Each structure stands twice: as C-alpha cells, then as structure tokens.
Amino acid sequence: MADPFAELFRALRVKGAVYFAQDFSTPWGMRLPSRPHAQFHVALSGTCHVETDGHRFTLAERDVVLFPTGVPHVISDGSYQVPERLTQSCFARRDDDLIQGGERMRFAMTTPLRSDFDASGLRVLARHSKDAGQARRLLALAMIYEGGPRTEAAKTGGVTLQIVRDWVVKFNARGPSGLINGKGPGQPSLLNDAQRAALAAVVESGPTPAVHGVVRWRLVDLCQWVWEMFRISISPQTMSRELRAMDYRKLSVRPRHHGQAEGAIALFKRVSPAWWSRSRAIKASTRAA
Asked: Could you read off the pLDDT of 165-187 as tens digits, one per residue?
C-alpha cells in the first residue's frame, strides 16, 4: 500500500519527516509550541479547528495545513478550551525517540477528578484506611489534587498511567469506596434456571431402579443424567455445589458390619439402673412442705 503522504512530501521537497496518525474523541484539543521545524496537519476524517496568531479556520476531511518554522498553534474540536500550560506530550520527547514513517495512536484528554474532595481530605482517608491498596490509591490521587503530574502519581502507586486513569474513573463514580478491590463474579454457572428446575424434579421423584440401575441418586448418576439430557459435562464436585445451592444435602447411610448381630446396638444403648437414691433429709423436708 502506497504511503498517503509520499506525494505531499515530494511536492514540498521534504527529505525526511516524522508524523503520527491520531484518533481523537470529543472533547479534545492540544497546544503545539514553537518548533525548529515545519509542522503540518491532515484531516483524514471529520473536521477540526486550528488557531494561530488570533486567526481561526476549519479543516474539513482531506484538508492539509502547513505551518512554517517556529509558528505555535492550537488544534481542537472547537468546543474544548486548551489550557495555556498544556502541550502535546509527544512533542516533549527527543526527536530520536519518535518513530519514523508514522504510527497510529489514540489520544484521550485527561479525566478530571471530582471537585468535592481535595488532597488533604484524601490523605486523611488514607491514614485511617484499613485497606493497604485503597490507601496507596488515595495517596496517588492526592498528588493529582495537589497539581502534580500523573506520571509521578503512577510511580507513587507503582502502576501505569492507564491504571491511574482507571482509579480516577472509579473514584469519580463511587468515591473512596470505589478504590477498594472487589470480589470477582467468578465462573458463571453451567446450568440455567430451566435446567435446575428439571434437575430438582428428577431429584424429588427419585430414580427408577429398572431404568437407572440405582435405588437412590448419587452425584455421579446425576452428572450422567445431566449429560444425557442437556449434553453438559459437569463434575461431581460442581454437581454437589449446585445441589447445595438448591437446598439439597447429601445423605450418607450409616455403615453396618456384615457380622453385626441383630439387636446388639439397642442392647448396648440400654441405660443402667440407678444405684443412688434421694437422702432421707430431702424426703422429710418434702413431706413437711
């Protein structure tokens, strides 16, 4: 596939170039500072607004704008107010670090923190928190409230910038409780409600010895029945958890030795006659009362 910028560079007699293909989502904007080389923008799709020296114009799809050396400008969607101190991060790198030939990246504007908290409040919450992970995340967000860069907050939390952004989203939605690790939902059940109802009906009706070959259900028998009916392979352990969730309990027959004599257990459980009697003093006091 031919390079879409080859003809443009050839017409401008450009010997080399570094360029990026960037996808933005509304609202977005970036301020590009003065550079020792020319800069250009191509609107591959959609529209954008460019401001420089008090002039503002719109780029439609496939429009190209070229800025000579040393011309700062602002490019945005028209609704986002770009702060004075905000610059595009990729232009702060060294030229050696930029990728030659183009690279497709996705830029998203920084998600602001909610305004009903501040740095001192988060540090107090972190001091009283009993969850180590929550305290670490609160301290990282406190650095952002104080105006620190999010890269330093990521280093403090020992994570990446993407994880810091996830913390900000959870904190904005649920407050400090959103920074506590929750328990995962786990693996979904193999049986749906209709299949559980059919299984409960089979358990309640019991097996037919001439058909099923058993006089009472075992876990392996129910697993086999589920496979024959629904073609679902289920282990006895999983079947046990399913039955317990349906308020069924496994009943085990009391073991009996083959040589055990009839009535031996009942004879062993007989209560011996009492060899004690009430004292005469207690009897006398009872009659007197």
From this structure: 999 999 999 999 999 988 777 88
| Amino acid making up residue 62 | R
pLDDT band at 80 (very low <50, low <70, confident <90, very high): low
Contact 65, 82 (CB under 8 A): no
Three-state helix/strand/coil letters over the chain: CCCCCHHHHHHCCCCCCCCCEEECCCCCEEEECCCCCCEEEECCCCCEEEEECCEEEEECCCCEEEECCCCCEEEECCCCCCCCCCCCHHHHCCHHHCCCCCCEEECCCCCCCCCCCCHHHHHHHHHHCCCHHHHHHHHHHHHHHCCCCHHHHHHHHCCCHHHHHHHHHHHHHHHHHHHCCCCCCCCCCCCCHHHHHHHHHHHHHCCCHHHHCCCCCCHHHHHHHHHHHHCCCCCHHHHHHHHHHCCCCCCCCCCCCCCCCCCHHHHHCCCCCCCCCCCHHHHHHHHHC
Tokens 């602001």 belong to residue: 112
Annotation: CATH topology of 6-106: Jelly Rolls (2.60.120)
Please name which of 110, 83, 105, 87 lies closest in space to residue 39, comparing C-alpha atoms. 87
**Taking the model in full, what pTM does it have?**
0.39
Give which of 16, 13, 12 is closest to 102, Cα–Cα: 16
CA–CA gap between residue 222 and residue 212 (Å, rounded): 10
Kindly list the domain boundaries of the chain, sorted by start residue: 6-106, 119-179, 193-245
For residue 128 the two structure tokens come to 């009283």
